[in-house]
Amino acid sequence: MKVWILALFSLSVFANPLMDKQNFTLSRDLVVRGPIYNDITPTQYHQEVFRIILEEAQVMAQEYIETQDHFAYWTFMMGALVIPYHEGRNTHFREIENYSGACRKKSNNGSILKNRPETKKIFNSFFKIKGAELIPDCKEMVSDNLLLQILHGHDGTDIGIMQINIRWHEKNYISTNSFSDVSESVRYGLGLYKKGFEGLYRNPKNFPCLYQHKKINQKRLIHAAWAGTYNSGNLAASCRFTQPSNKWAGNDEKFNQSLNTIYSMISKKIMNKLYPLPPLEAKLFKKIISNSLIATQNETIVADYLKNVPTFTPDDDVKSEKELLTRLNEKIHAIGAAMATTSQKINVRSEAPKGSTLGPLTGHVLETGTEIMINDVYEKEKTPWFHITAPFEGWVHGQHVEIE
Amino acid sequence: MFNLRNQFFLIMSLVMIFTGRELLRNSHVKSTNQKKAILLEVSRPRKYSYVGKDIKINKKWDDFRNYKLPTIELIETSKDLSNMARFSRHVAKRITACLTKNLCEQIPDKDSPYFDYHHTEAHDLLERALSILVSMKESGHDEYKLITQRELLDILKVNNESVQSLAIELLTAKGISDDFFEMILGQINDLHPDAIGSAYAILQESSQLSNVMRDKYLLSLKKSFKLNDGLKVVNLARALKNIQLEKDDLLDIARASCTQKSIEQNYRVIKFYLQSLDDKLFLDKICT
What we know:
Chain A is an alpha+beta fold. Chain A has two domains: 2-308, no CATH class; 322-403, SH3 type barrels, CATH 2.30.30. Chain A has 15 helices and 15 strands. A five-stranded antiparallel sheet of chain A has the order 14-13-12-9-15. In chain A, helix 4 (70-88) crosses helix 9 (218-232), helix 4 crosses helix 12 (279-294) and helix 9 crosses helix 10 (249-263). Chain B is mainly alpha-helical. Chain B has two domains: 50-160, no CATH class; 175-288. Chain B has 15 helices and no strands. Chain B has helices at residues 2-43, 53-56, 60-65, 71-77, 81-102, 121-138, 149-155, 161-173, 178-188, 196-207, 211-224, 230-239, 247-256, 264-277, 283-286. The relative contact order of chain B is 0.06. Chains A and B meet through helix 6, helix 7, helix 8, helix 9 and strand 11 of A and helix 1, helix 4, helix 6, helix 8 and helix 10 of B.
């Protein structure tokens, strides 16, 4: 029965049928986090992705709220909704029936990358390790009834909901296994978008394409942030979309379509067709669009939604993985923070590690025996990192922290 | 019988000719593909060709290059930290030299728009080398001191925020002379916009070593607030919470940042962070 339902859903997964053929089939040994298309209904799937996007974007847009920059807040939030829709039609993982050809040989054996030797080397060194292949050859999965897949781009070089390039983001995205987690993938992609957004927004006069009627135009700012840092890796290329003869005009045209589609979700019919959401989320989405158009002050609607609507229960695998820090997490969830003491002198850093690279120092040092207040945990490594709010704000490595 | 034998030879000859042609055709395909592959390899820079064979054959290379292995774990499991420090320093020097010369000959793919000139594979390797040294420092191992301050000053010229932040952390870790402190301040305004704030935060401790250094530090900070680059100024304002300043210094900084008044969104952020440090500081009044 499930197979039939899956087959029906499979037909409606992608607005672009080409994307149906753009997937790496993953090993079942890989622990993945986040919603899986077809494992739940399309509406539930989009609901979960919508929530993840809002969660991640809200954190990044916090300063815009604090400084009452309503225009920046709504523009950033709209861009955050546009980019995953444009890049992967919100799709990251999906589960499908193992019919003949469902596992794409060309994708899984890496031959799709034949013209990209550098990317292929990274693909092989990470996904094709003998005995622990995260993307095994299709013949290894012939007996599986269902396949778990992750979206890739038309030439296999980009991966996931945010279409992150395997070659250029090997160190901080692929090697950290961030692709196996939808939230982390969204966070990583939105981080690139935010870099472009800030680069433009803080020096707008260097980018005349942002302006319309002498004011920064919302859609232009989103498009420029995508075209520059996100799509080109180059802030200086942000205005390329205003030059119709530019080499990547086709990319810009498609992005413009996605941008307009997201704004047209104000229509119930379009939303139901392309971005089906339950009534509460559909209403919120429409409010975000209408608020963005007038840059209203009512930013609390997103925060209220995130606060009042419970998060989705993680899988059992994830639960067992997190058992190590259960005690700490329980405290944090119950009272918002947990107390701990440093067992050695520790530097405070302003960010959690990016991949295996430590974040920059804040300049604050915690002496041995300092009481700290932890309100978040980053568990990427064997030893976690803690976000502390007292005596200073920042991140500390858990190696020399004793939890009370 | 004769006819049959003739027919057999005829058929066999045809088969051989056909097979031979196929073989020839296949060998042609193969050689064309091989040529193509060779061409591709030649036309694109080989992966890490800029690193040099001496580095790639070193036993440390595999662990060094294994980004899945966090640097702190790498330090914990390393049997010879001096050797690892020497190796990291060597890689850092080599990569810095080629990045500043010609971006280590890295070029964008012809058919892809994406290429970040400030964040390439070579930048990642340099960042890895510095991260290893910083992790040694964090774990209380002095081997990180092998890299010299002069070398770190050169690394600061590589325009990448993580590389620059890590380099400044290492520069200040082993104590810093007046001269070097001044040299860093001399380069600080050219740092990547996302590195300038943390650079001042890291330098703060060193600035307190003498009154002369503190004066130079404050003067430089105030000057940086007058920069034309809005992102740098906003990032400096964001970093102020990590810099201990007297009220008078804050007032000077507020005055310097009035240059951003014409860009409303930047002005808002600066105002917000200044007021979070001193709620009696009214930027609107100062910048009238």
